[in-house]
Structures are given as structure tokens and as C-alpha cells.
Amino acid sequence: MNGKRVRLGVLGSGKGSNLVAMAQACACGQIPAEVVLVLSDLADAGILEQGRERKLSAAFIPPGKFRTKLDEEAERSFVQRLKEARVDWVVLAGFMRILKGEFLRAFANRVVNIHPSLLPAFPGLEAWKQALDYGVKVTGCTVHLVDQGIDSGPILAQETVPVLPEDTAATLYDRIQHAEWRLYPRVVGALAEGRIVVKGRQTTWLK
């Protein structure tokens, strides 16, 4: 990116802890990027408050009539706001809507997500509960590019988290979140620096 600070648009539906980690990494110079826009499909989402506390542009956009995805009007509104903000990368931080069609065409290979499991294991909702119920001894988190599927895009990086005998869903999720806060900014930083090459499903990190 020729030394410029990469512009990030962050989408989320929850409390915004990954936004906080990303914004802190940007502010301290850990990664050559800046969060320029925060959008949510929920008017009272904590991520909007976290954005406003950090003097970031933050807005609610009604998601439309569907429960699990944006309708066409909402999708156009999200795309328009992101384009107006001239974002280089769209960063999903607990965004609970499936992105399709126009959105992914507008930001082809520039939408990144973090998922609380070691994909392809346990895609979908409450992945930490799925891992705990299945009885695996190791889980973790995955940063991946977003495609038309559910948590199915090319994997960029993963961090493992052990499942302890005394774990509950809450304690396991807490440790996975701490791993997310470490991993996500590191991967977004590498993307901003052009140090990740993606060919098909294969990803290579450059030094």
C-alpha cells in the first residue's frame, strides 16, 4: 500500500471487543491501518458505542426483512457507506449476517472474518459450544477471507486454544476471545502490508 495507512471498515453485531483490539493496534502503530467506519445491523449494539467512545464514525443500518442476511436495500446501504468511507478492507467483528452477492462483488477478496474455532471444524453459531460438546481437546480461532459460504473462505491464520477438563462454555469462549484479540490485528496488519498472498485456497505469508 506504499506506506499509506490502510482504511478499515468494521461491521459487527455484538459488544465490539475485536473492534477495541483492532482500534488499539491501529492507534499504537502496531499495524499500518486506521478504522474509518463502524457499522452495525443492531441499533443498540455495543460495537457502536465502542466506536463512538473512540471518536470513530459509527452508524446503524437497518438489516431489512431477513433474519440471517441483509436484504437487497440494506446490502446496498452498507456498500454505499463503506465506499463513501473509501475503505480498503472490510473487517467483520461478530457480524451476524451472511454477506452475499453485491456486497462480496463490491469488495472482492477484501472482506475478512474471525471465527471462534479451528475451521473447517465447527462452522456456524456458538462454535465454542460445539467444540465443548464434541469433546475436542484443542480448539481456537481462525481468520479467513469471506466467500459465498458460511465460514468457508480461504484460511489466513489460526491460533490454538486448549480445552481444559474444567471448562464451561463461558470459560472456553473467554480464552478463545483473548486469542482472537491477539490474532486478528496481526493478520489485518499483514494484509495491510501486503504480506499475505492468496491463490485459490492456499495462503502464503511473506516475510
Could you explain the architecture of this structure?
The chain is α/β, with parallel strands linked by helices and 207 residues long. The protein contains six helices and nine strands. The strands form two sheets. Strands 3-2-1-4-5-6-7 form a seven-stranded mixed β-sheet, sandwiched between helices. Helix 1 packs parallel to helix 6. It starts with 5 loop residues before the first strand and ends with a strand. The mean pLDDT is 96.
Record keyword descriptors for this entry.
207 residues, alpha/beta, seven-stranded mixed β-sheet, two-stranded antiparallel ribbon, 6 helices, 34% helix, globular
Portion in helices: 25-40%
Strand order of the largest sheet: 3-2-1-4-5-6-7
Shape: globular
Quaternary state reads single chain
Total count of strands = 9
The low-pLDDT segments are: none
What is the H/E order? EHEHEHEHEHEEHEE
Mean pLDDT: 96
Biggest sheet, in brief? 7 strands, mixed
Structural class, please? alpha/beta
Number of helical runs? 6
Range of strand content: 15-25%
Radius of gyration, Cα only, in angstroms?
16 Å
Alpha-carbon distance between the two ends: 16 Å
